[in-house]
Design brief:
alpha/beta; Rossmann fold; 2 domains; six-stranded mixed β-sheet; two-stranded antiparallel ribbon; 9 helices; 12 strands; vWFA_dom_sf; DUF58; DUF58 domain-containing protein
């Protein structure tokens, strides 16, 4: 997290993670050769057939029967609770680095990536594409996504997420802070489109352990409400309530067919990389 440059961070983490991974992971346009077609501006240059170019002096793209690239849509909760700080960095900091890393991995696999930032005033949309310049736009949008206000109203995202007709993996990054089931409602909406859903639930170590040093009160970032805490007396009851809450969310996601992962902010993103590859390969079967 000390690396602020998202591009550098993503490359460093993914390149290290991929060391030793089977190099035969499916990449590109397909598994079995089907036909050639003329090159069109914007086509991935990796799929040019240079032997055909040598014979005909024209550019051709090698197409395949089985499409192995997908669209990966990243949905990031940008409500004010994502400004929660633990050990000097926020949930939004973690979300940025997490999405940058997963986005770089997806891009490297030949997938289109898109970003949707859920803010109180609306949804910041970067539609999914797979060209090299788009990855830099993806990083730029992540860097400029700041937490603030309450969670997005349903009216802002209605009819946005259901437009795609291609195979799609939707990655949701949130702290699941909700007062009236607003995040649960979004997940039900997404589930109706029958895309593969992968949810990363961010929690701070200080949240899990009710460890805020010498502080004796906490302020709700979204409502401004302040409560007094006496950690030694409250910790056991608090952790039991939190355990029940997390277990309820896990069961709810299981029932809705959502792949759910609880992520502590003090652990590396390696598990998230494995989860993305696992869900992606599941869609290829």
């Amino acid at each position: 997290m000390a690396v602020k440059d998202l591009s550098l961070f993503a490359r460093t983490v993914v390149d290290g993670f991929m060391t030793g991974i089977n190099k035969s992971l499916n990449k590109g346009a397909g598994l079995e050769f089907s036909q050639y077609r003329s090159y069109q501006p914007g086509d991935d240059l990796r799929w040019l057939d240079w032997k055909m170019y040598g014979r005909s002096d024209r550019y051709y793209i090698r197409e395949s029967e089985v499409e192995t690239s997908i669209s990966v849509r990243f949905i990031v909760d940008a409500s004010h609770s994502m400004a929660h700080n633990d050990s000097g960095y926020t949930k939004m900091d973690y979300a940025r680095h997490l999405c940058a890393t997963l986005g770089y991995l997806a891009h490297r696999q030949g997938d289109a990536i898109g970003l949707y930032g859920l803010t109180e005033k609306g949804v910041h949309v970067l539609a999914a594409r797979r060209d090299p310049q788009h990855l830099q736009r993806f990083y730029y949008q992540l860097e400029n996504l700041e937490p603030g206000g309450k969670f997005t109203e349903p009216g802002y995202y209605k009819n946005i997420f259901g437009a795609s007709t291609t195979r799609e993996l939707t990655v949701i990054v949130t702290d699941f802070y909700e007062r009236a089931g607003e995040i649960s409602a979004l997940l039900k909406e997404l589930g109706a489109y029958r895309h593969e859903l992968l949810l990363f639930h961010l929690v701070g170590r200080n949240e899990l352990e009710l460890d805020y040093g010498n502080y004796t009160s906490l302020r709700d970032l979204e409502t401004g409400q302040t409560i007094s805490i006496h950690a030694p007396e409250m910790r056991a009851a608090y952790q039991e309530r939190l355990r029940e809450r997390l277990e309820m969310i896990r069961h709810q996601m299981l029932e809705q067919g959502v792949f759910y992962r609880l992520l502590r902010m003090d652990v590396p993103v390696d598990q998230a990389l494995r989860d993305l590859l696992q869900q992606r390969q599941k869609m290829m079967r």
